[in-house]
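Reopening this one. Same input as before:
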Amino acid sequence: MFRLAVAQYAVYRPQNWDDYVSHLTDWIEKAVAQHAELVVFPEYASLILTALVNETKQIEQYQAIQSLLDRFLELNHNLAQKYQLCIISATFPVQENGKFLNRSFVFFPNGEIYFQDKLQITRFEKGVISSGETIRIFQFKNICFGVAICYDSEFPLLIRKYVENGADLIVVPSCTETWSGFHRVHLSCRARALEHQCYVAQSCIIGSADWVETIDQNVGRAGIFSPVDHYFPNDGVLGLGNLEQSQWVISDIDISLIKKVRRNGEVFNYRDWDTQHHFNKIEKNIL
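Same output, byte for byte:
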């Protein structure tokens, strides 16, 4: 068992790099004070760093903050080691081979650094952000997890690939500017937890950053979700953020319960996944 914390992260405008260091350190220290061992920040929360560059247009801002990427990585790397926890960072638009990838970095307390790129790109990102190509599975303590960035969570077959390759926890850094957008991701997270009988945790960004188009308006509620079955809450909600409140949402994660529910649950969604492919005979009765 370990303690998971997902950020319901209010944007703010950093005055300088040291201000940002203090800000992120404060967030980590608050999580550590609540005994968190794995923390998740939301999609595009790194874009508050555009306040430290002079550009005002989206592409130019993305290009300009590449100069801050090494410091961003070093800061998260040092925090993970200092406080001995695993950090799934705010996603960062990383420029690589002439294109931008929406990338979440995974920092382990032993100093190792990995990453997951967003795979499914929304129509608002196309033309700016390119799709990643690889699903990566990570292990922390006794649980395997994957990072599915926002829109990725809305695709059951994609998440199934994570689960089939060992992930019992899916963390979802998200960024949604409308309540309909939030509910699409929120409901998708809960559905993925139900159908794969796994944990799913959504981090979200809230508030306004009027100096950067990508995160100018943001709404959402961070949450941690479980299977809807024996051993878990009747609604599958382990934690849910308060409206418009900057906070950590925290829950203990017990991998043994995933094994139990897949073996002894009221239903066997995880086990029965392939049976849905057997129904290929279709009869249409159209008046």
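So the earlier flakiness isn't reproducible anymore. For the record, The domain at 2-266 is CATH 3.60.110.10 (Nitrilase/N-carbamoyl-D-aminoacid amidohydrolase).
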